[in-house]
């Protein structure tokens, strides 16, 4: 009979929880839009597909975000699935102490969504709904238009570092 797995004492230590979360690789997105002609945006690694009908994706946003209150009230948001090689760009969008768009090549849609050039996919979305979950909000975004280029390898975040995908030959 196999021995039982010991998973550590409760309550969960915050540093240990962050370490455990970092074991799961994720893609990285930029959620951006124009607010009074000014680009605003955030980097989000908590992005996932949700539904085909209606077309929905989700991102999780910390309650401490000072940018999300500006973005949530805009009619259209651009979600850019960042591509391999866009690590510096992602760091810029995550910065709190400087112009996040200083070194970010972007273009707006007619409806004010902002898309990062060179991204693997662009989704033009609007806020469908939000669910409070602990210290974050789970934001469901409805997709109105999109374009994707699966030949662009995605930017991957794992163990607090940016990584590359490697395809194994079968």
From TrEMBL:
Keyword terms, alphabetized: Oxidoreductase
Any GO molecular function: FMN binding
Claim: Hydrolase is one of the keywords in the record: no
Pfam families registered for this protein in UniProt: Flavin_Reduct
Domain of life: Bacteria
Boundaries of every Flavin reductase like domain copy: 21-164
Cross-referenced Gene3D superfamilies: Electron Transport, Fmn-binding Protein, Chain A
Regions that span the bilayer: none
SUPFAM superfamilies linked: FMN-binding split barrel (SSF50475)
Family: Belongs to the non-flavoprotein flavin reductase family.
Name recorded for this polypeptide: Flavin reductase family protein
Organism of derivation: Pseudonocardia bannensis
Higher taxonomy: Bacteria, Bacillati, Actinomycetota, Actinomycetes, Pseudonocardiales
């Amino acid at each position: 009979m196999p021995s039982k797995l010991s998973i550590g004492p409760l309550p969960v230590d915050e540093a240990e929880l962050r370490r455990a979360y970092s074991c799961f690789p994720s893609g990285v997105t930029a959620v951006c839009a124009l607010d009074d002609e000014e680009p605003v945006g955030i980097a989000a690694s908590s992005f996932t597909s949700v539904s085909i009908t209606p077309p929905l994706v989700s991102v999780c946003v910390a309650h401490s975000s000072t940018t999300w209150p500006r973005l949530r009230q805009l009619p259209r948001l651009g979600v850019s699935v960042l591509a391999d090689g866009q690590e510096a760009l992602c760091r810029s969008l995550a910065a709190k102490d400087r112009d996040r768009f200083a070194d970010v090549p972007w273009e707006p849609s007619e409806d004010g969504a902002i898309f990062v050039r060179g991204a693997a996919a662009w989704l033009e979305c609007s806020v469908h709904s939000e669910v409070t979950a602990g210290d974050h909000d789970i934001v469901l975004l409805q997709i109105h238009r999109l374009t994707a280029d699966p030949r662009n390898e995605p930017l991957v975040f794992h163990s607090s570092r940016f990584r590359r995908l490697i395809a194994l030959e079968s």
